[in-house]
């Protein structure tokens, strides 16, 4: 795939529900044929963007896309709680470790869990845990 995907690979881009990008139009939205889930990105597209980043020498960006792909199946309310708990002085170390375990056990989000555990260690060293 070639970046930007929406320009060079428009026909192969699909949403979380499998709807093709070319089928998501204002007309289809007005007809009620496009739901909010239809406009959410798919794991495959995030992984494809990660691959483009890797091929262009941006390994850190590839890791970001890998984590984003893991979060596709995590409910929005859980993601919002995670962001809140990752703010300095908002969580105990145990709360962050518990959150990481939930990410692994419920959502198979191993890379995201690793990031949360790393944050817990850094926050502990910096004295910004509850």
Describe, in short, the structure shown:
The chain has helices spanning 5-8, 26-30, 43-55, 59-71, 76-85, 93-107, 110-126. The chain has 130 residues and is an all-alpha fold.
- Report the end-to-end length measured between terminal Cα atoms: 45 Å
Largest sheet: none
Helix-residue proportion: 55-70%
Radius of gyration: 18 Å
Provide a descriptive summary of the structure in words.
The protein is mostly helical and 130 residues long. It contains seven helices and no strands.
Helix and strand topology:
Blueprint: H1 5-8, H2 26-30, H3 43-55, H4 59-71, H5 76-85, H6 93-107, H7 110-126
Features:
7 helices; mainly alpha; 130 residues
């Amino acid at each position: 795939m070639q970046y930007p995907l929406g320009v060079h690979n428009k026909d192969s881009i699909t949403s979380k529900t499998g709807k093709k990008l070319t089928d998501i139009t204002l007309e289809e939205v007005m007809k009620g044929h496009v739901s909010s889930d239809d406009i959410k990105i798919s794991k495959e597209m995030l992984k494809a963007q990660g691959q483009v980043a890797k091929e262009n020498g941006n390994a850190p960006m590839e890791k970001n896309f890998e984590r984003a792909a893991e979060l596709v199946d995590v409910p929005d309310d859980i993601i919002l709680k995670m962001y809140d708990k990752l703010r300095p002085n908002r969580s105990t170390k145990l709360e962050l470790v518990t959150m990481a375990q939930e990410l692994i056990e419920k959502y198979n989000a191993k890379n995201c869990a690793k990031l949360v555990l790393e944050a817990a260690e850094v926050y502990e060293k910096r004295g910004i845990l509850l």
